Amino acid sequence: MWAGTKIKYTSLAVLGLLITGPMVASHAAATVENTVYASTETVSVDQQPDTTVSEGFENTSGTVTTRYNRLTTYSDQDLTQATTTVIPAKQTSLVVDQVVKNSAGQPTAYHIAASSGTAANNWVAALAVTYSDNLLNLSGSSYTTVTVKGTFTTTQTNIQTYKDYLLATKTGRIITKKGQTFTVDMATKDSNGNITAYHIATTAKTNGGTWLSATKGNYKDSR
């Protein structure tokens, strides 16, 4: 038999004969077709969609909120080289500027922007965080985040804290007393340059990693 060929079995009803064995290739009633035997084997990896390996990164503009305590960060976009920097608390909000997606279009990693301060210029796994896009308010004003270094002292009681820099999602934690001072490391600005919110640093003893409205106290720069 020839390599790479397959012989079909044919019943010669017109001759009143039944052939139950393979017919020789030269028989007039036999049909021969080329067969690629590799196609009947396991499909090679490069023929299947890759849903794990990153294909490069693209720019993005948003924040991520950590879902776990002691979150590992990485120096590479494929998350193979862990750094010594660990994000200690869940619900920490971080500004991100790049995202890695797999061939299925799903995010696999986010790059922490230099403006975040905490864990800046490292990567985190997409499955370990919740991503939020930079949004527009009803008047069309865009919001951005900037790095600050200072303290924020509350001037009101029962102040709500938030998970995000747009103050859209409450944490459920309340700052009950006025006169409390927190170290802050980021601020939200609207398109007119007005500061609308401050981020309490993750190193703070209480409420670290949360945001609060700029109208609820006074900021003092320490630079």
Can you describe what's shown?
There is one protein chain. About 0% of the residues lie in helices and about 40% in strands. The chain has about 220 residues and is an all-beta fold. The chain folds into 3 domains: about 5-40, no CATH class; about 55-135; about 145-220, SH3 type barrels (Roll). Strands 8-7-6-3-9 form a 5-stranded antiparallel beta sheet, with no helix packed on it. The protein has a 5-stranded antiparallel beta sheet with strand order 15-14-13-10-16, with no helix packed on it. Strand 4 and strand 5 form a beta hairpin.
The shape, in one word, is: globular
Helix content: under 10%
Predict the CATH topology of the largest domain: SH3 type barrels
| Distance separating the two termini | 85 Å
Could you tell me the number of beta strands? 16
Main sheet makeup: 5 strands, antiparallel
Given this structure, which CATH class of the largest domain is correct?
Mainly Beta
Named CATH architecture of the largest domain: Roll
Low-confidence stretches: 1-54, 136-140
Q: Please identify the structural class as seen in this structure.
A: mainly beta
Number of domains: 3
Mean pLDDT: 74
Spatial order of the strands in the main sheet? Answer: 8-7-6-3-9
Cα-atom radius of gyration: 31 Å
The helix tally amounts to: 0
As a percent range, the share of strand residues is 35-45%
Topology as H/E string? EEEEEEEEEEEEEEEE
